[in-house]
Structure formats: C-alpha cells, structure tokens
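quick one
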Amino acid sequence: MSNPRVVVVGGGAAGFFAAIICAEKNPAAAVTLYEATAHPLAKVRISGGGRCNVTHACFEPRELVKRYPRGGRELLGAFHRWAPRDMITWLAERGVELKTEADGRMFPVTDDAATIVECLTQAAAKAGVEVCTSLGVRKVEPVGGAHGPPAFWLTLTDNTELRCERLLIATGGNRASAGLTVATALGHTIEPPVPSLFTFHIDDKRLEGLSGISIENVAVSVPGTKLKEGGPLLITHWGLSGPAILKLSAWGARELAALNYEFPLGINFTPPHTRESLLRALAAVRTQHPRKQLGTWSPLGLPARFWERMLAMSGIAPATQWAGVANAALGTLALQLTGAEFSVVGKSMNKEEFVTCGGVRLSEVDFRTMQSKRCPGLHFAGEVLDVDGITGGFNFQAAWTTGWLAGQAMAGAPA
Ligand SMILES: Cc1cc2nc3c(=O)[nH]c(=O)nc-3n(C[C@H](O)[C@H](O)[C@H](O)COP(=O)(O)OP(=O)(O)OC[C@H]3O[C@@H](n4cnc5c(N)ncnc54)[C@H](O)[C@@H]3O)c2cc1C
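structure w/ flavin-adenine dinucleotide:
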C-alpha cells in the first residue's frame, strides 16, 4: 500500500515522533494526528523541570535496557534499531544540539524544553503531518474482517467518523485515557496501571529540620523484599527523595502499591560499610584523632547537620572529643549510620518526572514494528505500553524508539 491513511491518536512525544517518521518515510501517506487537548507535546514542554531530559548518554543497548523496570527485555532489539545516538543525530540534523551532564542525562544546550517542542512541531509541519488539536478519538472499530487489508472506523470526540488503514495508539500513561479502552476493545490485555517514580512520606525525628540536605551515596532497601537500590538521597519537607528513592520506587512500583505505600525502609548512609566495618573505622579514627571534637569534624564526609543529628541520636554530645567516646556509643552511631530503619507512610509524585507502570501487555505487541499481535494494522508506542524507565531521560527514549519503530512500520517500510 503506497498511500495508506494513517491516524495517530495522542500528540505526546511518542505519537508526534511516530507521525513525523511515518510522513518523512512515505510522503504519499496521509498522516493525521489527533490530540484530545489544546496542547500537544504538553509533557515535553514541562519535562525535566522545563529543560527536557531528552535522552541519556548510554550507548550500549544491553546497558540501556537495565534502566527499564518494565519493558527492558522487549526493548533490547528495538534499541538496536533506534537508540539514543540516533535520536541525538536526528535532532542535530534539525539544528538541535544536546549536552550531557555529569550523570549522563542529556538536555538541549538551550536548557529549554521549548527547543524540543519547536523542533518536533516544525518537523511535523515540514513532513506534512496534519495535527488536529482539541479533538480526541473516542471509539475504534475494526472493519474488513478476516479478508482484505485491515482498516478501522474511528469516532472522534465531536462525533465525526473516519476510516484509516493504519492506527497508532500513543495516548500515554493516563489510566482514564480512551487509549486503554480502545486497546481492550481491540483484544488487548491491560496490565493494571500504578504510579512509578515517586517520593516517600516519612515522619521521623531523625529527619526533622534537615530538608534540603543531600547525601551523596546511600544504600536503600525494603526489608522483607528483594528491593535494593543505591545512589544520592535527598531529605525533603515530607520525607525522602533523590535518585536512590526514585529508583527504588520504580523497581518496586507494583510491590509498594500492594503495600499501600506503607512499608519499612532500610538505609545504610555509609555503604559499602557494614556496622562491623564502620565500627572498626570509627575506632581507628578515635585512635588517630583523639583530641578532635566529634561535632566539628565528620570523618565520613557526611553533611555537617546530618552528622550532628546522627551524633545526637546516638547520645553523643557534639563537644565530645573522640578519645572520650565509649565503645557502646560508637556502636550505636555505627548502627544508626549503617542500619537505620524508617517507616514510610505514603507517597508523593516526583514533580520532575513521574510515569505509569502498567499498560498494554508487551507479549501482545511485536516490538519490531510495534504492531499488535491481536489486531493487524494497529500499533502502540510510548507510555500506553507496559514500559517504564527510571529517571534520566529513559522514558522519553522509550517513546522515541517505539514511536520510530511504529512510524517506520506504518509508512509501509520493510520491518
Ligand atoms: C512532570 C513530568 C516531567 C517529565 N520529565 C521527563 C524527562 O525530563 N525525561 C524523560 O525521559 N521523561 C520525562 N517524563 C516522562 C515522559 O514525559 C513520558 O514518559 C512521555 O511523555 C510519554 O510520552 P507519550 O507520548 O507516550 O505520552 P504523553 O506524553 O502522555 O502523551 C499522550 C498524549 O495523548 C493524548 N491523548 C490521550 N487520550 C487521547 C485520545 N483519546 N485522543 C487523542 N489524544 C489523546 C494526551 O492528551 C497526551 O497529549 C516526565 C513526566 C512528567 C509527568
């Protein structure tokens, strides 16, 4: 089919990119994108704190897939076809340069998400994509039956009806979206949506008044589960956040939802120390610096206010000299630092980036083309799928990659 009528439902990162790729690849295709709201690419515009963390400088697919609590296995082949380097090149060819931060996150050099929105909007216009805003897709029915090429009847939110031969559902992770209803009606199973990438509510004296303090590297775990993560920790007004917590929330999205977000959280503030190794290290400090005061000098590189709080919790006055600390107090301090346990009593969404775990079941989609295995001619891309990554640009990369694969396939290009 050289001039298929292609409809993309959803004007987010995945739908927009898929529409552009399809129209660029096959100029004879009539590509129309329907966006239910007045603002396509709304999430791109607010993403990454307004800077848009477009992708991540991770160029080895086997490494890249380790950043996806759900979908990593399915994305491996997909990343061999469209990976961060391809996205960087695609944007550069359209005049958008990216920069890499120390932790690997990539942003436009303008530090402005509008740069990405403008680039995609211009590319869509140039490729001839028809973008219809404030117009959603309400209902989809397959036509044609088992014989003849696949086609669909679509009912829009203004009740107009139209026919298309290729259909992409890219309606994102919103559980109330018609995308999931359409997918179900067309024979798909939906993995129940639950939030991912959230911060923890903790009401605890050890954290009181310390909001804003970050600790460079901690090990966090949920006792009684296999959940374990490491990385920077941020103390907030309401509890804990930072990369270590966000990663734990992503990998534990389902288990923590089942616990109704009430669970114990174990923290080692000085990994890889164990209580025993830290006790030995602190005893050595006591021998080497007997006259130094504990309150004015932390041998572990922890933020001063946090260290003071740990001393107080261990019953050690800040003016105490190291030589004057009893073994028992040192043991308590080592335990506070390596084996702290907190009670999480709820969650908040991370305003920098949050995503949905769950969506269209992955075994029902062919990841070479993003085509449904249940309904020929139907494709999926982006967060509507049961795919989600940790923070760092991985969620957009999944949207670009699945969008690219769907766009290529809908254009009629060989898979
Ligand atoms: C605040 C915030 C910041 C983020 N920052 C980053 C970041 O910096 N880096 C990163 O990698 N990820 C980030 N993410 C995650 C990332 O934005 C998403 O994973 C990504 O936008 C998913 O793209 P999508 O196209 O699948 O879905 P969406 O962007 O959600 O787009 C779906 C679109 O479909 C439309 N739609 C829904 N139903 C219909 C319908 N029936 N008909 C027509 N249209 C419909 C919606 O209105 C929406 O515009 C962030 C998320 C949030 C919430």
